[in-house]
Amino acid sequence: MLTKIYCRISFWDIRCLTAKKIRARKAERRINRFSSIVFRSYLLRITINDQRTTKTKMKRIGLISDTHGYLDEAVFKYFADCDEIWHAGDFGAGVAEPLAAFKPLRGVYGNIDGKTIRAEFPEHLRFNCEGVDVWMTHIGGYPNRYASQVKEEIYTKPPKLFICGHSHILKVVFDEKIKCLHINSGAAGKSGWHKVRTLIRFCISEEKIHTLEVIELGNR
Q1: Structure confidence by residue, pLDDT tens digits, 41-51
Q2: 58-64 and 84-87: which strand pairing?
């Protein structure tokens, strides 16, 4: 990003240090030229410095799914440094509100969610995050076994990141066929057949998904 600088220089504030023998007009022209050179040099230094200090924009994501009405207090600790929380469905009662109050929340409804959650969250959510095409849905399957409702589109218009829940099985798999990363964060709630409650954190910047961490919340 280049910073444009506009300033107004009053030459009444510049004191003439030239010899008395130099006429006033010549002195003024020399001061004008000198001031112009100094200003251009100053502008160049600020522009270069601004380019050096520009930081790469990055989003830190906290991914959670299948809470089924149970929200562990540890979630707030582990997602404290996240920019957004994404929920892959099966919220259950009393989960969406505290998450949304804590961080910006994106989510999709799951098969156990009622009218309130379904009125607020869609079944499918497709969006762009830092140059990454993201598709999130609750029931999506996984590479080579995608759910019937997503199968056609995921092969014809594949996202770069495909997130789902429902299975309560933690998975991070890259689909070589469509060049898409599939993530299922497992289940963070206490209902279901999983043995350990889990979350995932990761970062997105410059069209790349990186710094992925799996967090265990404890036994179900």
Answers
A1: 433 343 334 44
A2: parallel
